[in-house]
Amino acid sequence: MIPAYQLIEGSDSKPSRCCVGVTLLVSLGFPFFEWITMRIPACFAITLTLLAAGQLKAETPPNIVFVLCDDHRFDCLGAAGHPFIETPHIDSIARDGAMLTRAYVTTSLCSPSRASILTGQYAHNHRVVDNYHPVDPTLTFFPEHLQKAGFQTAFIGKWHMGGEIDDPQRGFDHWVAFKGQGTYWPDGHGTTREVPQTTYDGLNVNGKRVPQNGYITDELTDYAIDWLQKRDAEKPFFLYVSHKAVHSDFVPADRHRGRYADQPLPIETPTVEQMDAGKLPMWVRNQRNSRHGAEFGYNLADFSPEVYYRRYCESILAVDDSVGRLLRFLEQNDLRDNTVFVFMGDNGFQFGDHGLIDKRTAYEASARVPLLIMAPGRIPAGQSFDALVGNIDVAPTLLEAASAPALPKQDGKSFWTALTQNDASRFDRKTLLYEYYWERNYPQTPTLHAIIGGRYKYIRCHGLWDRDELYDLQSDPAEMHNLIDSPEHADRIEQLNAQLWDLLHASGGDEMPLLEDRGVRFPWRNPNKSKQAPFPAEFFRTSEHGN
C-alpha cells in the first residue's frame, strides 16, 4: 500500500489519522476516495466520522505517564466529593478520562503495593511483604517489556523496596531516586518527628549522588519534565513519577502551609464503647493505643489526628500542582492526544477510622485508592468506571495499552478493553484477595487475609486468638458493625471463607513468606490511654460445645 501522506501532492509529513483513514478506504476499493485524496488534502470530515465510529486506532503505541501518590486515600480528591480539598488537575483526569470507583490494593503497605504494581503479582508471589526487603532479582518488572516493545523508560522518585536501596533498577533507561523515605526538604524543616528510613543524602541520578535542592514534590517534577524535554522524540515513552508525598510525617510545601488550618476532620473517630458494641476484634481495639492508633499515634503524647489530617491535605496540593505541570507539558508539546495518563495511590490511610491511623488493614480507608486514567481518543471522557480492579491489574493493563507482550507470570489481568469500551461488565471480577503479613517492626496489626470489593467484606486474622470480621458495606460503609457471629450470615461466612482459600490456592498463596528481622521495633503503648481490650465474649464458656 502507498503511504497515505504520499497520496497528497507535495506532502512530506508523517501520516495523519485523516490520511490513514482515507488510505484504509482506498485499500478497500473506493476509487473516489483515492481521487479525492490526491487533490483535496482537507479530508478531516471523513476522518472525524471514522474516529467517532471507533474504526481507527493510532498507528503507533501511546506514550504512558504513571503518577503514584503515597498513602493517598480514595476519598481525598475534589472529584471524589471531598468537602474542602482542592485538586483541580487530578480532577481533570476524571473529567477528560475515567475515574475508577472500585480500585483497591491487594496489600496496603508501601513496598508490597509498589512491587505488585511493577510485577502484577500478589505479595505472596513477589514476596516483598515489608518496607525493608528488596525485590527478588529474578522477578520481571513490566517496564522491561515496554523496553522490548521500543519504549524509552524513566523512573523518578520513591523506590522504597529494600530499605536503603536507591540504585538504578532493571526496566528503566533513566533513573532518579532516593534512599528509603528520603525527606520533604533537604534541611528537614516543617517536620515534627523523624520517620524511620528518612534520609538526607540527596538523590541517585543514573548512579551518581546529586544533592536535593528544594521541596521534593516540586523537584521530582522538575526532573520528570527535564527528561521529557531531552527524550528521543522518535520513540514512545513510559514515565513513572513516584512521589514521596503524601507519606508521613506530612510536610506541605511552604506555599500551602496553613491552607486548611481551620478545616474540621471529616472523619469520625469511634469511642471505645462504640468499638465494643460493634464487636470489633480485640487487636483493633488494642491498636488505638499504639503507634498506629488515634490515641498514641507515632508514640507522640500530643498526637492529633485533626492536625495531621490538615497537613496531609495541604501536602496533596503540591502533588496536584505536579500533575498540572505534567499535563501542561504534554499539551504544549502536542503529546496529550497520544498519551495514557494514570494517577494512582499506593494505598490509603486512616485518620481515626476504627480508632486507627496509618494503613495495613483491610478496611476501605486503608485498602481503597484513587485511580484515574485519561487517554484521549481511546478512553471515553467523563466515565465513572465501576469494575473491581486492583494494583495487580496495572501492569497487564498498561502492557496491553502499549501493545507489549504480557508478563511471564501475573496474578492480575488487563481491564484496558473494558475501559476503552466504557463497559465494566467486560471485566469480570466479583471479588479481590487482600493480604497483609505481620511485621515484627509494627506488631499492632496481625496477618490478615480478606475478600474485598463486593457488598460483603470478610476478614480472616491469622496466628491470633481473636475474632474474624464480616461487614455489609451497603448498610455499614464505615465497617463498624461486625457480623461475624450473626446466625443469618453463617452460610455467607462459610462461602466467603471457601472463596478466600480458593483464591489463595489458585494463586499459590498457601505458604507465607518469612523474612529475617530488619529495622526498629515499635511495640509501645501509653499507660495513660485506653487499657487492654478483653477477649471476645463468645470465647468464654463453662463447658465444651461441639467437637
Beta-sheet strand percentage? 5-15%
Distance separating the two termini = 77 Å
Using the CA coordinates, give the radius of gyration: 25 Å
Broad shape: globular
Helix fraction bin: 25-40%
**Uncertain runs with pLDDT below 50, 5 residues or more?**
1-58
SS content category:
alpha/beta
Largest beta-sheet details: 10 strands, mixed
Strand sequence of the main sheet, in spatial order?
7-6-5-4-8-1-9-12-2-13
Counted by DSSP, the helix tally is: 15
Number of strands: 18
Question: What is the residue-averaged pLDDT?
Answer: 89
Structural description of this entry:
The chain is α/β, with parallel strands linked by helices and 547 residues long. The chain contains 15 helices and 18 strands. It has helices spanning 17-27, 31-39, 44-52, 88-96, 110-119, 123-126, 142-148, 216-230, 272-277, 282-287, 305-332, 364-367, 394-401, 416-420, 490-506, and strands at 63-69, 98-100, 103-104, 152-158, 174-178, 203-205, 208-210, 237-242, 339-345, 350-351, 357-358, 371-374, 383-385, 389-390, 432-436, 447-452, 456-462, 469-472. A ten-stranded mixed sheet has the order 7-6-5-4-8-1-9-12-2-13, sandwiched between helices. Strands 15-16-17-18 form a four-stranded antiparallel sheet, covered by helices on one side. Strand 6 (203-205) and strand 7 form a beta hairpin. The relative contact order is 0.15. This is N-acetylglucosamine-6-O-sulfatase.
